[in-house]
């Protein structure tokens, strides 16, 4: 008989929110701020970001499921997954970046759960699937916050400003919620996410100006 598999498990929707939501906001804030000034058609901009959001959500869900399952290669892109991305004509540097982000997500997931002192428990498929769906949903919701302003108007300059403001406000509110959930210092937590959003906006501006 095989030994029962142990894993660090999500403590519920609050943990799933903390893992998924901010990464979704930051990713789409980054890509939209870079690309809205480029010579893309409106439809191409929409299609590209829907693909980005869909693929990133899927990868996040895979990482979360593995974290709940406790696999030996948690957070590591498998050869099969890499081949699927290659079949989509995605450049190797981009695939390597995605793999690196998966590892970062895995590390962040484990750090959050350990900080909350979530004990090791036997793997449960139902719990793992629920956590996977919730985290993916929160990630997708965060991405939509940054992306929806572009869907509401085709003046991308105005939409870019609206998206930036709404995203930073969402990160500010998230920082407040996380401080309440984890008991951490309110000002420090809110400023952390506000500054993170500011760094993403600055990085997207610098990269967008260079390409």
Task: Give structural notes.
With 211 residues, this protein is an all-alpha fold. The chain contains seven helices and two strands. It has a two-stranded antiparallel ribbon with strand order 1-2. The model is unreliable at 1-6 (pLDDT under 50).
Count of DSSP H/I helices: 7
> Distance between the terminal alpha carbons, to the nearest Å?
57 Å
Mean pLDDT equals 81
Main beta sheet strand tally, sense and closure: 2 strands, antiparallel
Write down how many β-strands occur, each being a DSSP E stretch of 2 or more residues: 2
Q: Are there runs of 5+ residues with pLDDT below 50, and where?
A: 1-6
Q: How would the global form be characterised?
A: globular
Strand order of the largest sheet: 1-2
Rg result: 18 Å
Structural class: mainly alpha
Question: Into which percent range does the helicity of residues fall?
Answer: over 70%
User: Helix and strand succession?
Assistant: EHHHHEHHH
Q: Which band does the percent of strand residues land in?
A: under 5%
Topology:
Layout: E1 6-8, H1 13-35, H2 42-69, H3 79-87, H4 92-115, E2 120-122, H5 125-152, H6 156-182, H7 186-210
Antiparallel strand pairs: 1-2
Helix pairs in contact: 1-2, 1-5, 1-6, 1-7, 2-4, 2-5, 5-6, 6-7
């Amino acid at each position: 008989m095989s030994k029962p598999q142990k894993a660090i498990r999500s403590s519920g929707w609050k943990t799933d929110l903390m893992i998924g939501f901010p990464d979704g906001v930051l990713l789409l804030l980054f890509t939209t701020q870079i690309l809205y000034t480029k010579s893309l058609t409106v439809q191409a901009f929409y299609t590209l970001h829907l693909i980005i959001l869909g693929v990133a959500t899927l990868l996040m869900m895979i990482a979360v499921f593995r974290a709940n399952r406790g696999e030996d290669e948690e957070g590591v892109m498998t050869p099969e997954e890499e081949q699927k991305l290659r079949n989509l004509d995605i450049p190797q540097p981009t695939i390597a970046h995605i793999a690196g982000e998966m590892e970062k997500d895995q590390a962040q997931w484990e750090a959050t759960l350990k900080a909350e002192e979530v004990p090791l428990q036997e793997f449960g498929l139902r719990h793992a699937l629920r956590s996977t769906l919730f985290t993916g949903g929160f990630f997708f919701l965060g991405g939509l916050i940054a992306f929806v302003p572009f869907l509401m108007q085709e003046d991308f300059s105005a939409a870019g400003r609206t998206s930036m403001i709404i995203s930073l406000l969402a990160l500010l509110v998230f920082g407040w919620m996380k401080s309440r959930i984890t008991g951490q210092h309110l000002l420090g937590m809110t400023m952390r996410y506000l500054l993170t959003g500011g760094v993403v906006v600055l990085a997207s501006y610098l990269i967008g100006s260079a390409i």
